[in-house]
Amino acid sequence: MAKSHALFLLLVLLLVDACRPSHQQDQNRISSDDLAALAAVKDSLTDIPGSNFFSTWDFTSPDPCSGFSGITCSLNRVTILTLGNGVSSSRGLAGFLSPSVSNLTELTQLVLYPGLVTGPIPPQLGLLSNLRVLSLSNNRLKGPIPSSLSLLPRLHTLDLSYNQLTGTVPPGLFTGLSQLKVMILASNQLSGELPRIVSAGILHLDLKDNSLTGTLPLRLPSTIRYLSASKNMMWGSLNGLQSLSELGFLDLSMNQFSGPIPSSLLRPPLSSLFLQRNNLSGGVPTSLPSSSLMYGEGSIVDLSHNLLTGELSPVLAAVETLFLNNNRLTGRVPEEYVKNVYGGSTKTLYLQHNYITGFPLEAGLGLPDTVSLCLTYNCMVPSVGFKGCPAASGGEQLSRPESQCVVFNHGRSIP
């Protein structure tokens, strides 16, 4: 009896051992639904001459998960799909993005590298409930942003920049995605207004180079660190930005914003501030203590081409690259600016096209070779600060006509 039992166990072990290669092969075999979805994706896209991304997509391969380029799998399911190889010398892919990609229901990342992919963004992408990264930038995608993307509960990063997308931004992208941290919609043809309140905990929001109108949201998340909406058609005041204590980069240039600059924007960690070519008015804020400690290496502030008036306060004296040109600033430049320019900590200081009456110089000091200083077309004759001027900053005329200076400087003429 014992011998029969031992023989039975031996037969069982031999049977298990005989089946093991097939079992392991099953573990490596991709889901049939995913394989069909990948076939549809390949049918909708093609390599541009010079690209060979799809050369490894052999559907007779026993293990696409390890053989297909751009594929990462877990438990027989595709979790990451990267279309294109991202090499700068590659021209990328052409065609359109198949709605069948939504059948890859375990996807956590969908990335399309730069190429010539056109057509709409499939609304079916909203079915990918596990998706955390959706990046389709630098292609020729057209049509609206599907509102269904607002249904992606785990979405962390959304990058649809540098396409040809039109229509408004679905409000749900700002209010319905609790996990969203990065949204990049730059360089499209988006229009309409932004919602009044942005409730998502966004860290990075880039909307530049579109056709957006209206005002800034009344409330933005206090978590935001990077905000760009330059080259749009937005208007209104900047008061809604006063509570953004984590903001380190702000670019609202080339819009129609008006009113004064909130003093809260001239503080760390906001060391990259671009507000040029708007209709901002009032003076440069003066009420900030210890302003010389606020800025340092790499800092840049551009307030040029606005309607700023009054005398220049010392608050921006430590900025490394500072553009205040083409405003209506008056009076003498504070000595703090002169000290930093001649000390070399300020690398660029543009004050041309204002109504400034003086730039106090220390006798015998020469301007460092690394510094660009422009003082032309003010209410003074500059002894320095015109060799570093950009082209067409005032032509050959170094000073304003005295008649203009008398009006803006309370009767004081050019010294």
Describe this structure in words.
By secondary structure, this protein is an alpha/beta fold. 15% of the residues lie in helices and 25% in strands. The chain is built from six helices and 27 strands. The protein has helices spanning 2-28, 32-44, 64-67, 172-175, 335-343, 402-408; strands at 45-47, 71-74, 77-83, 93-96, 109-112, 116-119, 133-135, 140-143, 157-159, 164-167, 182-184, 189-193, 204-206, 211-214, 226-228, 233-236, 249-251, 256-259, 272-274, 279-282, 300-302, 307-311, 321-323, 328-332, 348-350, 355-358, 372-374. A hairpin with a 2-residue loop joins strand 2 (71-74) and strand 3 (77-83). The longest helix is centred in the N-terminal third of the chain and has 27 residues, at 2-28. It starts with a helix and ends in a 7-residue tail after the last helix.
Summarize the structure.
This protein has 415 residues and is an alpha/beta fold. It has helices spanning 2-28, 32-44, 64-67, 172-175, 335-343, 402-408; strands at 45-47, 71-74, 77-83, 93-96, 109-112, 116-119, 133-135, 140-143, 157-159, 164-167, 182-184, 189-193, 204-206, 211-214, 226-228, 233-236, 249-251, 256-259, 272-274, 279-282, 300-302, 307-311, 321-323, 328-332, 348-350, 355-358, 372-374. The longest helix is centred in the N-terminal third of the chain and has 27 residues, at 2-28.
